[in-house]
């Protein structure tokens, strides 16, 4: 009975030392504390009359930022994964250079330029931001899908074929599980890129954590910029740690 207590205490102790837990706590603390931090920012920036961003609640901006990133990243992951699978199949290899060129163009054009082109067509708001972010996030997923599938050993493919598996069975049961860690690394890069890039969506009327940054830059209010940047940076850290945890779990399973 005496030895059971330390054993039960170890998981709790490990939980308190979890970096992801502390990062989440820091993000939550920022959301709670920022609306009451006027004295702090007034002391840091005494020349600014309104040092605290009050146009929208920070929690609402965080939710809208996450929604925009989630939808655009979902589109990018789906498009990049399907394109990567298609051009690694025998029938699609002839289109590899074309697909890569098209997706690379989306990555080459700055998101601001995509927004400038999309706004006259679809108007202001979240839609042009979704288009820009989806285009910008597709390339890392495409490359990681291709790299993961192409890294599957030929002997493994031949063994699966010798067992009588169909091409889709080989993809689903053999190739995809082996390519999963590499694919996940590309998804991780795509999402993190979109978290930072989504801040510029506020230039076309979308409400994100970039709103304090854009308003601060246009009004020479460094306090606003700092508040938005703190939240965007903390959100990126939390999501990156979450992907790191997921990558370790995937590596363990495979």
Could you tell me the radius of gyration in angstroms?
Answer: 23 Å
- Summarize the main sheet: none
Number of separate strands = 0
Oligomer: single chain
Q: How do the SSEs run, as a string of H and E?
A: HHHHHHHHHHH
Q: So, CATH architecture?
A: Orthogonal Bundle
The total domain count is 1
* Fraction in helix: over 70%
Low-confidence stretches: 1-5
Beta-strand fraction estimate: under 5%
- Looking at the structure, the CATH topology is MetI-like fold
What does the average pLDDT come to? 84
Overall shape: it is flat
Structural class: mainly alpha
> Could you give me the name of the CATH homologous superfamily?
MetI-like
Keywords:
254 residues, mainly alpha, MetI-like fold, flat
Q: Care to describe what's here?
A:
The chain is mainly α. The protein has one domain: MetI-like fold. It is built from eleven helices and no strands. Helix 4 runs antiparallel to helix 9 and helix 9 packs antiparallel against helix 11.
Strand and helix layout:
Blueprint: H1 4-16, H2 19-33, H3 38-44, H4 58-88, H5 96-108, H6 111-122, H7 126-150, H8 154-162, H9 167-197, H10 210-218, H11 222-253
Short overview:
The chain contains eleven helices and no strands. It has 254 residues and is mainly alpha-helical.
